[in-house]
C-alpha cells in the first residue's frame, strides 16, 4: 500500500481489516517504516503486508501515532482466487562479496568489481567493507542501490522500494520488487572481526565454552539484533535473504568429520545457530550438505595457509565465513563459492582479477507464489 501526506510520526500505522471489522480486529498491521518496530517517521511511502489472503473484501486503514484516530478514509481492496502473472515462480540469483576496502587493494579494483558482478549473473548483490563502491558500481551497471551510512550496501537490477537500518549492527536492509511484482527483503551484514574464533581454536587452544562466550559477545549480539528486526518478515511467508561477511564459521562445518581441519575442535558456533533457529536456511550447505567433501571455504583466496593475515601466526586457518541465508518462499537450487580469475596470495595480489580477500558466495533461488 502506498500512503502520502501523513503526519510523519514514527508510530503512525496502517492496518489491514476484513470488511466490517472493528479497528482492534486487524488481520495484519505495520508502522509506516514497513515493520512492527517503529524506527523513523514517514509522510510518504509504501507498506507491504505479507502472506496470503482468502478471497473477499478487505479495508486498509491509516491511523495516527499508535492510536485508533484515522488519518484518512478506508481504502477497500478485493482479493480474488484468480491466478495472476505475479504468482508465477521467479528465479533470483544472489551474490555476497566483501570488497576488500572497495577494491582498493588491487589495481583497477572498482572495474574488477563491476566485471565480477557481471560474470556472476547475479540479480542482487550485497557488499561489505569501506570505502563502499556501491554507487559507482551501480551507476556503471545501470542498477539500483542503497549505500548505508553505517557501512555496507546492496545493489539490485530490480527496484529498491524500501530501505532501512538495523540498530546494533552493520546490516543495511532493503525491500526489492521483482519483475513479477513479488517482493523480497535483503539484508547485507558485516559482523565484528575482532577476537576471531578460529584463531582462538587454532593458536590459543581456548576451551570451547570460552570461545562460544567470546562469539556471543562479539558477533552473537549483532546477529540477535538483525534477527529481532527481521522477525516480522521471518514470521511471514515473504522471501527473506540474509547475506554477508559474518566473520564466524558455521556450526554445520565444525563437526566430527572435519576435526582435522579445525585443530581437533567441534564447535556449535552461536551466530549460525541463531540464524538456523530463526528458520533460515544456509543455501550453500543445503546444496552441499557434506562439509568434509565440500568445505566451501571463503576465507581466504589471498590469505592462504602459507600467507597468514596476522604475521604472529604460522599459518592462516581456512574457513567458510561468508553466507547467503534464506527463508520464506525462496528455495535454493544452486550455490557455489565464487571468484574470478586465479587469485594469487597476498604479496602477489595487486594484479588479481578477483578484487577481494574473501571469496564470494553465489546462490540461485526459485521464489514460489
TrEMBL record:
Identify the residues that the record assigns to the Endonuclease/exonuclease/phosphatase domain, covering every copy: 95-358
- Which keywords annotate this record? Endonuclease, Hydrolase, Nuclease
Name the domain of life this protein comes from: Bacteria
**What does the record give under GO molecular function?**
endonuclease activity
Would I find RNA-binding among this entry's keywords? no
UniProt key word Hydrolase: yes
Q: What is this protein called?
A: Endonuclease/exonuclease/phosphatase family protein
Query: What species does this protein belong to?
Result: Salinithrix halophila
Amino acid at each position: 500500500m502506498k500512503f502520502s501526506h501523513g503526519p510523519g510520526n514514527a508510530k503512525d500505522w496502517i492496518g489491514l481489516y476484513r470488511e466490517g471489522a472493528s479497528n482492534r480486529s486487524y488481520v495484519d498491521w505495520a508502522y509506516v517504516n514497513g515493520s512492527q518496530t517503529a524506527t523513523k517517521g514517514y509522510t510518504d511511502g509504501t507498506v507491504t503486508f505479507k502472506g496470503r489472503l482468502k478471497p473477499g473484501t478487505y479495508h486498509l486503514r491509516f491511523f495516527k501515532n499508535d492510536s485508533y484516530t484515522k488519518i484518512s478514509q478506508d481504502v477497500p481492496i478485493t482479493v480474488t482466487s484468480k491466478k495472476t502473472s505475479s504468482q508465477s515462480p521467479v528465479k533470483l540469483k544472489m551474490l555476497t562479496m566483501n570488497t576488500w576496502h572497495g577494491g582498493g587493494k588491487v589495481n583497477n579494483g572498482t572495474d574488477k568489481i563491476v566485471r565480477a558482478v557481471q560474470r556472476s549473473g547475479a540479480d542482487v548483490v550485497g557488499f561489505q567493507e569501506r570505502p563502499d563502491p556501491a554507487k559507482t558500481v551501480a551507476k556503471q551497471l545501470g542498477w539500483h542501490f542503497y549505500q548505508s551510512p553505517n557501512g555496507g550496501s546492496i545493489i539490485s537490477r530490480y527496484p529498491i522500494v524500501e530501505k532501512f537500518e538495523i540498530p546494533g549492527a552493520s546490516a543495511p536492509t532493503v525491500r526489492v520488487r521483482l519483475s513479477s511484482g513479488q517482493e523480497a527483503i535483503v539484508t547485507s551484514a558485516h559482523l565484528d572481526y575482532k577476537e576471531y574464533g578460529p584463531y582462538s581454536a587454532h593458536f590459543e587452544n581456548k576451551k570451547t565454552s570460552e570461545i562460544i562466550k567470546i562469539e556471543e559477545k562479539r558477533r552473537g549480539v549483532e546477529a540477535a539484533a538483525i534477527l529481532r528486526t527481521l522477525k516480522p518478515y521471518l514470521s511471514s511467508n515473504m522471501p527473506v535473504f540474509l547475506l554477508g561477511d559474518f566473520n564466524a564459521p558455521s556450526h554445520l562445518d565444525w563437526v566430527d568429520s572435519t576435526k582435522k581441519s579445525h585443530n581437533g575442535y567441534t564447535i556449535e558456533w552461536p551466530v549460525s545457530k541463531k540464524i538456523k533457529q530463526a528458520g533460515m536456511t544456509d543455501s550453500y550447505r543445503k546444496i552441499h550438505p557434506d562439509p568434509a567433501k565440500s568445505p566451501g571455504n571463503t576465507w581466504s583466496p589471498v590469505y592462504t595457509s602459507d600467507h597468514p593475515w596476522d604475521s604472529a601466526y604460522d599459518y592462516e586457518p581456512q574457513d567458510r565465513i561468508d553466507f547467503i541465508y534464506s527463508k520464506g518462499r525462496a528455495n535454493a537450487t544452486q550455490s557455489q563459492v565464487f571468484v574470478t580469475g586465479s587469485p594469487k596470495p597476498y604479496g602477489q595480489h595487486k594484479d588479481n582479477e578477483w578484487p577481494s580477500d574473501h571469496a564470494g558466495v553465489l546462490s540461485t533461488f526459485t521464489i514460489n507464489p
